[in-house]
Write a structure and sequence with these properties.
By secondary structure, this protein is an alpha/beta fold. It contains 17 helices and 22 strands. Strand 13 and strand 14 form a beta hairpin.
C-alpha cells in the first residue's frame, strides 16, 4: 500500500510529533490502513487503556502499543486462514466392544500424540471450574511439564520487555490529604483488630431453601436472628424473590425518609395531587419505542412499593427540578405534584438519610493508626502469564511492610486472551498454583506476623466456583489446594470490615462502569462524575443498586440482597473500576478507585493508604480543632501509585 500522506494523519490526529508521525506512517503501510482507520484504532486504545481521557496524546511509546495490538490481530487472522492438519486414526473393527470406558478413550488419545507422553488436552475455554482435588505439588509438577507452558518460552514477550523498560514506575497518579503529617508507627507493630461486619448479617433478605418468598414481612425480617452464611444458589432464584427484594428496598428507605423529614404519611404518586407531596419510589428507564435506548429525561418512570402505590409506575417529569442525578434502580425521595393523574412533576429530590455515621469521639472503639496496600487484578499482562506486575507489587510491599494488604481479584481472569483463545494448555488452577501462590508465599514470609493479608474474589475469576454477585470468600480448602500459605485469609465480595475502628467497604464488581452508561444528571451536588458514581452506592446503602446489570456482567442474586446492603456507613469505600482511578472525600467518606494493577499490555496502579491517630491530627494545626470531632476520613491519606 502506498504511503499515507502526512497531511491526512495530521488532520485526523490534530497534531503529531515527528517521531509519532513516522510511526503512524509505518503502521499504515504495514497493516494497510488509512489515516481515519488508524485514528479509530487510536481512539479504541485510549478508551481501553485510559478510560477515554481526551488529554492523552499519541506519543511514539503509546503508538507502539497500538502496533502490538494490530500485529496480534494480523497474526490471528493469518493463523485462521491456514488449514489445520487433522490426524487420522485407524479405529479397531472389533464389534464385540459396545462402549468405550475411560481407559480406552485415554489410550486412543495417547495414540494421537506423537511427541508427548501425556494425554491430549483440549484448549481451556472460559468455563468456570474450581480447583481440582489434589496436592499443590502434583498440580505444579504436571503444569511445569506442559510443552505449551509460558514458563518454557525462550524469550519474554515484547510487552514484558517494554514493561521492564517503562519510564513511569512509582509515579503518583492521584492523592488525597497529602498535606497530613507522615505516619509514624511504633515498632514492633501491634496486630490489627479486624472485625468482619458481614458476620452480623440477619436473614431478612437471604431466604432459606425451605422458606417461602412471602412467608415473612419486612418488619419481621428486620428483627430476624443472626445466621451463618448460606450457599449462593445462583440457579435457583424465583421471580417472586426478586420482586420481594425490590419491594423491601423501597419500604426500608420510605421508613427512614418519614423519620428523617418528620412526614406523617407518604403520598401515592400515581394519584392526582393538586398540592406538593413527597413520595418514595424506584427510578426506571422505560422506552416503549426503543427498549435498548439509553436513559433520558423523557423516559424516567417512578415505581412504587406494594404498600405505597400497589407497585404501579408513573411517568416522572423532572423539567422543574433544579438538580438531580438519577439512574435505573435508584430509590429516591421526590417532592412534586400530579395534576392530571398521568405524570408526576418533580419539583425537587430530597437527600436520602444516611446510615448512622459518628465521629471518632462518639465511637465505642478507639481509632488506632495503620497503613495498607490495596490492589486489584488482573495481575499479569494480556500477552503472557508471568505476572510481572504482581511480582513488582510484592517487591514494593515487602519494602514498606504495611500493616494491611488487600488483594482483589481476578487472579486468573476469564478475559485473559491466552485463556480465552486456548493459547495455553495450563488449567486455571495450574496458573494460580504455579504463578500466583509463590508470590503470595513470598509476601507472607516477608511481612511481620502482625500484618494482615486478605484476598477478595471476583466474578471474573476462573478459580472461583461462584459466578454471581455477591460471592462468598475463597474456602480454606480451596486455598490450601492452590498452595496459598496459612496466614492469608479471604473476604467475601462485597466485604465490610472494621480495621482498628475504621469501617472499610469493598465492592469488587465494576459498578461504576455500569452506572456511567445509565446515569442522567443536571447540576448535581457532587459535580465530579466518577466520585459521584461511587457516592451513589453509599447513598443507596447498596453495593449494586442498578436495576439490571449488563448482559456480559455477573448475575445479581436477589435472594442474597442482604449481603449487598451496607450495614454501617463506610469511612473508606473501595470500588475498583476500569474507569480513571481517583481518591476523593465526600461527606466524611473516602471514595476510592484504585484502578487495576495491569491494563492490557502495560502496568496499572495500586493504592497506598495511611490512617492516623486523632492525637497526631491535633498537633498538625489549630484549624482542625478538637480531634474527637473528626471523622476517620479526615485522618486518612491516600496515594495512587503507578506500578
Amino acid at each position: 500500500m502506498p504511503a499515507v500522506d502526512p497531511a491526512q494523519l495530521q488532520k485526523a490526529f490534530g497534531s503529531l510529533e515527528s517521531d509519532a508521525l513516522s510511526e503512524c506512517q509505518s503502521m499504515c503501510q504495514a497493516f494497510g490502513l488509512g489515516a481515519d482507520e488508524l485514528f479509530i484504532r487510536w481512539q479504541t486504545y485510549v478508551i481501553n487503556r485510559h478510560g477515554g481521557d481526551a488529554g492523552i496524546r499519541p506519543t511514539r511509546e503509546r503508538l507502539l502499543d497500538v502496533r502490538v495490538t494490530l500485529q496480534q490481530e494480523s497474526d490471528r487472522r493469518a493463523s485462521q486462514r491456514q488449514p489445520q492438519a487433522v490426524p487420522t486414526v485407524k479405529l479397531s473393527r472389533n464389534r464385540e466392544r459396545t462402549h468405550y470406558d475411560k481407559k480406552s478413550v485415554e489410550g486412543l488419545l495417547q495414540n494421537m500424540v506423537s511427541s508427548s507422553q501425556e494425554p491430549l488436552r483440549t484448549p481451556q475455554s472460559t468455563k468456570r471450574v474450581g480447583l481440582l482435588k489434589g496436592s499443590a505439588s502434583a498440580v505444579r509438577s504436571r503444569s511445569m511439564a506442559s510443552p505449551m507452558s509460558p514458563s518454557v518460552f525462550a524469550e519474554p514477550s515484547p510487552s514484558a520487555i517494554r514493561y521492564s523498560k517503562r519510564t513511569n514506575p512509582g509515579r503518583t497518579e492521584d492523592t488525597l490529604h497529602s498535606e497530613l503529617p507522615p505516619l509514624c508507627l511504633p515498632e514492633p507493630r501491634a496486630a490489627l483488630t479486624v472485625h468482619n461486619l458481614a458476620a452480623k448479617l440477619a436473614d431478612d433478605d437471604a431466604l432459606s431453601d425451605d422458606e417461602d418468598d412471602e412467608s415473612s414481612s419486612a418488619e419481621d425480617a428486620d428483627t430476624a436472628a443472626h445466621v451463618p452464611a448460606r450457599r449462593m444458589r445462583y440457579m435457583f432464584e424465583k421471580l417472586g424473590t426478586r420482586t420481594e427484594t425490590i419491594n423491601r428496598r423501597i419500604e426500608r428507605m420510605a421508613l427512614d425518609v418519614k423519620a428523617e423529614y418528620a412526614i406523617t404519611a407518604l403520598a401515592n404518586p400515581t394519584y392526582p395531587h393538586q398540592d406538593a407531596v413527597t413520595a418514595v419510589g424506584r427510578i426506571l428507564n422505560i422506552n416503549l419505542d426503543d427498549p435498548a435506548a439509553p436513559i433520558s429525561n423523557d423516559t424516567l418512570f417512578l415505581e412504587t412499593s406494594r404498600r405505597l402505590g400497589n407497585g404501579r409506575r408513573i411517568l416522572l417529569d423532572v423539567q422543574a427540578s433544579p438538580s438531580f442525578s438519577l439512574f435505573p434502580g435508584q430509590v429516591v425521595a421526590v417532592e412534586g405534584k400530579n395534576i392530571k393523574g398521568s405524570e408526576f412533576a418533580a419539583s425537587q429530590f430530597r437527600p436520602l438519610p444516611r446510615l448512622p455515621h459518628s465521629s471518632i469521639g462518639d465511637r465505642p472503639d478507639a481509632i488506632q493508626p495503620f497503613d495498607g496496600i490495596i490492589a486489584c487484578g488482573p495481575y499479569t499482562l494480556s500477552d503472557n502469564l508471568e505476572y510481572e506486575p504482581l511480582r513488582d507489587l510484592i517487591d514494593q510491599t515487602l519494602t514498606t511492610k504495611p500493616s494491611l494488604v488487600l488483594l482483589l481479584g481476578p487472579f486468573v481472569s476469564e478475559a485473559h486472551p491466552m485463556l480465552r483463545e486456548g493459547q495455553t494448555d495450563l488449567m486455571p488452577e495450574d496458573v494460580f498454583s504455579t504463578k500466583v501462590s509463590p508470590h503470595l508465599a513470598r509476601l507472607r514470609e516477608g511481612l511481620p506476623i502482625s500484618s494482615s493479608i486478605y484476598l477478595v474474589p471476583s466474578a471474573d475469576d476462573l478459580c472461583s466456583p461462584y459466578v454471581s454477585f455477591p460471592q462468598p470468600p475463597f474456602s480454606r480448602e480451596l486455598l490450601a489446594r492452590a498452595g496459598v500459605p496459612d496466614g492469608i485469609e479471604s473476604l467475601s465480595n462485597p466485604a465490610q470490615i472494621a480495621v482498628n475502628g475504621v469501617n472499610i467497604a469493598i465492592s469488587n464488581i465494576d459498578a461504576l462502569f455500569h452506572l456511567v452508561k445509565e446515569e442522567v444528571s443536571r447540576l448535581p451536588a457532587l459535580s465530579d462524575r466518577l466520585p459521584r458514581l461511587a457516592w451513589h452506592l453509599v447513598e443507596q446503602r447498596h453495593f449494586y443498586p442498578l436495576a439490571t446489570p449488563p448482559p456480559d456482567c455477573a448475575g445479581i442474586l436477589a435472594s442474597q440482597d442482604a449481603r449487598l446492603r451496607m450495614l454501617v456507613a463506610p469511612d473508606i469505600m473501595v470500588t475498583p473500576s476500569q474507569l480513571r482511578q481517583f481518591a476523593r472525600m465526600h461527606e466524611n467518606a473516602v471514595l476510592l478507585n484504585p484502578g487495576h494493577l495491569s491494563k492490557g499490555l502495560s502496568g496499572g496502579t495500586f493504592v497506598k493508604l495511611a490512617v492516623r491517630a486523632p492525637s497526631s491530627m491535633e498537633a498538625s494545626g489549630p484549624m482542625l480543632g478538637d480531634s474527637t470531632k473528626l471523622f476517620p476520613a479526615e485522618c486518612t491519606s491516600v496515594e495512587i501509585v503507578r506500578i
